[in-house]
């Protein structure tokens, strides 16, 4: 088994924290892990890309080749679009509807999402809105992580434990908020995968927060 993940965002968003949580859960589950990061010119506002490789055998290379990743996690919309060439045919792109307008003439969100729709398996989430419903807008990245949970080759308990460990130093209230956000993301993915096309509008609370183009 080999499962390659690209995580795309900008500095200061927490993309690397998301990678660290998945890596920790994978190691706890007994998988081999390789992780490397590519940083843009600025610590905050520059692009940040994590290559995360999970396998049941040793992994030799750090970098994921183009068109081979099973998953793209987009913490920022335009960065997700920029890294789309890494996604394999049939892979999943799970993308936050989050914008960091760090370049002149940043594209309209509708244009970005139109380009993303070339992916056969796509989920775009308003993670901040769902995090707010779950209790704290600061847990938006954990909502995004939860949306990937059913697609990752990891036990649910391992991912929950990794989230709890990551935030343990911040106190029980923060841990609980992030566990609620993880569950919210998981429920959003389950809802949109069970409903096709226009019927998504019948899912309470989700119609304005996400869309999916499922072919699974």
In short:
By secondary structure, the protein is an alpha/beta fold.
The overall pLDDT average reads 86
Overall domain count: 1
Question: What strand order characterises the main sheet?
Answer: 2-3-1-4-5-6-7
Measured distance between first and last alpha carbons: 19 Å
Number of helices: 7
Would you give an account of this structure?
About 35% of the residues lie in helices and about 25% in strands. The protein is globular. Mean pLDDT is about 85; it is low at about 195-210. The protein has helices at about 15-30, 75-80, 110-115, 125-135, 140-150, 155-165, 170-195; strands spanning about 1-10, 30-40, 45-55, 70-75, 85-95, 120-125, 210-215. The chain has about 220 residues and is an alpha/beta fold. It has a single domain, classed as Pyruvate-ferredoxin oxidoreductase, PFOR, domain III (Pyruvate-ferredoxin Oxidoreductase, domain 3, 3-Layer(aba) Sandwich). The protein has a 7-stranded mixed β-sheet with strand order 2-3-1-4-5-6-7. Helix 4 packs across helix 5 (about 140-150) and helix 4 packs across helix 7. The longest helix has 22 residues, at about 170-195.
């Amino acid at each position: 088994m080999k499962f390659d993940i690209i995580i795309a965002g900008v500095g200061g968003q927490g993309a690397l924290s998301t990678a660290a949580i998945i890596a920790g859960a994978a190691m706890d589950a007994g998988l081999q892990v390789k992780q490397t990061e590519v940083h843009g010119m600025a610590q905050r506002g520059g692009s940040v890309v994590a290559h995360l490789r999970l396998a049941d055998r040793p992994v030799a290379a750090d970098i994921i080749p183009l068109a081979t990743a099973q998953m793209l996690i987009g913490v920022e919309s335009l960065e997700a679009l920029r890294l789309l060439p890494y996604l394999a045919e049939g892979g999943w792109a799970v993308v936050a509807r989050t914008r960091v307008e760090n370049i002149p003439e940043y594209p309209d969100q509708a244009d970005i999402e139109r380009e993303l729709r070339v992916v056969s398996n796509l989920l775009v989430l308003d993670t901040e809105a769902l995090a707010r419903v779950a209790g704290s807008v600061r847990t938006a990245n954990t909502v995004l992580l939860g949306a990937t949970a059913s697609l990752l080759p990891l036990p649910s308990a391992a991912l929950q434990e990794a989230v709890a460990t990551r935030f343990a130093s911040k106190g029980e209230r923060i841990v609980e908020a992030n566990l609620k956000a993880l569950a919210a993301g998981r429920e959003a993915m389950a809802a949109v995968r069970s409903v096709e096309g226009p019927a998504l509008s019948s899912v309470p609370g989700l119609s304005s927060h996400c869309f999916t183009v499922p072919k699974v």
